[in-house]
Amino acid sequence: MSTWVLLRGLMRESRHWGEFPRQLHSAMGMQAVVTLDFPGNGSLHMQTSARSVAGMAEHCRTQLRQLGYHPPYRVLALSLGAMAAVEWSRCHPAEIDRLVLINTSLAPYSPFYHRLRPANYPALLHFLIHGSPVWRERLILQLTSRLERSAHQQDELLRQWVSYAQEFPVSRGNVLRQLRAAISYQASLTPPQVPLLLLASQRDRLVDVRCSSALAQHWGCPLRLHTEAGHDLPLDDGTWVVRQITEWIARDAGDANEGKSLGDASAPR
């Protein structure tokens, strides 16, 4: 039985998934759902972040072995986490059963000004140089979510995120290492050799949706677009994400059964 592995992006940790892991587990039945932190983030905030996306992927493999989870894995990954998932599937394709990549961007498929919208450069520069945890988390929420919340809901979510940042602070050095890894990563021109689903948000403030469209075109894989959500699609509409995954898996199973039936029908009697 496959294990679902969830990977997040820059500076984010397992707790930022919120209710989504439970939603996915409920839809997948008996399949395990595991959330991992990259070194430098969350429970691993005291560790030095990997200087490469390949290093992040290798650390995921090591964590899973230590936790007692064995391949094949079904990997759902967001943003920087999706880069690590792509590299993982390139180096160890036999370990990956399926990939679901959310709002990611990859060189050389997209230009830098699509991979990170230029309008965000000044705020992110200020974010790196200055910024209290409250200011940083407010900016991250503004850039990554488009969901309309009440003032109380907004304040409660920010309170949670600030408490995470204060309990497990991400050092400026680790932020820079993660950024450098993301900027320098060059994906292979060969598509991942595993079943792959792309999910993207048309109102993503951080990454241009054309990055996902470019990947779908080059890789020949399905792309599902959300018309209202922001960059953190599982946060804004986890129910939609789970529905796209279950329908994709069911469609693949149906195609496989149809192919088997056709094969049986053409077999000699």
Automatic annotation (TrEMBL):
InterPro entries the record matches: AB_hydrolase_fold, Carboxylesterase_BioH, Hydrolase_4
The species this protein was found in: Sideroxyarcus emersonii
Domain Serine aminopeptidase S33, first and last residues per copy: 32-233
Taxonomy, superkingdom: Bacteria
Lineage summary: Bacteria, Pseudomonadati, Pseudomonadota, Betaproteobacteria, Nitrosomonadales
Protein name: 2-succinyl-6-hydroxy-2, 4-cyclohexadiene-1-carboxylate synthase
Gene3D superfamilies (UniProt xref): alpha/beta hydrolase
